[in-house]
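User: structure tokens for this one?
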Amino acid sequence: MEERKAVACPKTALFDKKECNEWDVTQKLFKKKINNYYKAEKARKELGDFIKHRMGHAREWFKKMTAEQEKDVKDAMEKWNKEGVPKKIQTVIILRKSLKTFWRNLSYPIHLRGQKENNLR
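Assistant:
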């Protein structure tokens, strides 16, 4: 279980901006089980491949979690909210923001760069 928690640990900026809730953690930890449940229900009910069906089946699986799975989710949620995004991922996020700013500045002619910044303030 620890290995699955480590693999599922947040790797995006989304978790840098908000705390994880049970729904977020469940989707990360039990992604394969939820997908298998969705495929089985889709085949059983002969449904099309629509996002509304996928989310509905994910909610059904979420409501049917065992006590052990709920405990795993709560433990992972507490750990992820306490530790936040790993340092390596934080570095990537900072670099992406810097590159985005760099390319945005390059897209304006030199004589307009200062004006653009002053107009935004």
